[in-house]
Amino acid sequence: MINDYGQDTYKVLSKLLKLTFTKYLKDSGIKFNGIYQLKNLTNGVEFYMIEVNNIQIRFKTSKDFLLHFMTFLKKNIAECNIEYQRLTTRAIDEFTDEIGLEMRYKEIDYYIYQQSELLKFIKIHYEKVKAANVQDKNNII
What we know:
Structural class: alpha+beta
Oligomer: single chain
Number of helices: 4
Strand content: 5-15%
Strand order of the largest sheet: 1-2-3
Mean pLDDT: 92
Number of domains: 1
Low-confidence stretches: none
């Protein structure tokens, strides 16, 4: 199982979001590859980009990240479910490494579990951020 989830990148992201979710990342199949602060030179708008499992997510606010990350997780869980189904229904012949096959589908099953738990956590936090934004807008009026 993957133990390196991109700790350095995660630490930067965690500081930006003011949110920690390390326990869900360990052995989850998710790896943060890098985080960047970018600036559009024509209009001066600054934003961040993070690479997760070779997918790029661009965001300006915590709410943006959480929304895009939920979409990423849903898609990734669906892909893991397809791979799990493929592995568990694969025909066994004399050339099949049954132990390797079993290890791989158990690993993917654990990825699904960890990512599903992370998705639940992110959804809860997203709702809190969304509610806080609504509250802030109501206080301005």
